[in-house]
Design goal:
Number of helices: 3
Shape: globular
Strand order of the largest sheet: 1-2-4-3-5-6-7-8
Largest sheet: 8 strands, mixed, barrel
Number of domains: 1
Order of helices and strands: EEHEEHEHEEE
CATH architecture: 3-Layer(aba) Sandwich
CATH class: Alpha Beta
Number of strands: 8
Strand content: over 45%
Radius of gyration: 15 Å
């Protein structure tokens, strides 16, 4: 799945892209189905294009499950990310997070946005334009027992000093 979004990098709008491999989409939706009405989320691994304008998301790990119907913020300790990175580096890098809204909410909570921006502001994350995949439960008319999963993708940016930062939704542009 391919996505694009406009972000403000300095004084100009720039179009960034994200590509989610079929394996990533299957992994995320599978973890969400397994969690059913509980929140679940994790870390995204991949690489950026040479011009740093396209993120190729190749793997989605599960690193947190909650007993509630949603996750309040993306709480993945940096040492956990560092430990997981050992299995991927140097071929893949930390490129962001994903999480599931079992309640069907298709937008990010304010605490989700702040968590994503913390990653963009943190030079130690080495991820200046983190990708965030929000999976959400889709309630299908007439089929209340069917668990369908929708996906939205967001990108975050921050200035070097962390003063200006924002999260922008991305639009799906292809399969």
């Amino acid at each position: 799945m391919r996505y694009t979004g406009e972000v403000n990098l300095g004084d100009e709008l720039t179009v960034l892209g994200a590509e989610l491999s079929d394996a990533v989409v299957r992994a995320i939706t599978g973890h969400c189905r397994g969690a059913a009405d509980r929140g679940v989320g994790g870390v995204l691994w991949g690489r950026y294009s040479e011009d740093s304008k396209t993120c190729h998301v190749e793997t989605a790990d599960v690193v947190m499950v909650t007993g509630c119907e949603g996750i309040s913020g993306i709480e993945v300790p940096p040492d956990t990310v560092a430990l997981l990175a050992v299995g991927y580096w140097p071929d893949s890098y930390f490129v962001g997070h994903w999480h599931y809204h079992a309640d069907g909410l298709t937008d990010l909570h304010a605490i989700d946005v702040e968590s994503i921006l913390e990653t963009a502001r943190d030079p130690g994350s080495q991820c200046l334009t983190p990708i965030h995949v929000l999976a959400y439960r889709e309630f299908l008319p007439g089929r209340p027992d069917e668990l369908a999963i929708g996906i939205r993708v967001f990108v975050a940016t921050a200035t070097q000093d962390g003063y200006m930062a924002h999260v922008a939704p991305m639009k799906q542009v292809g399969g």
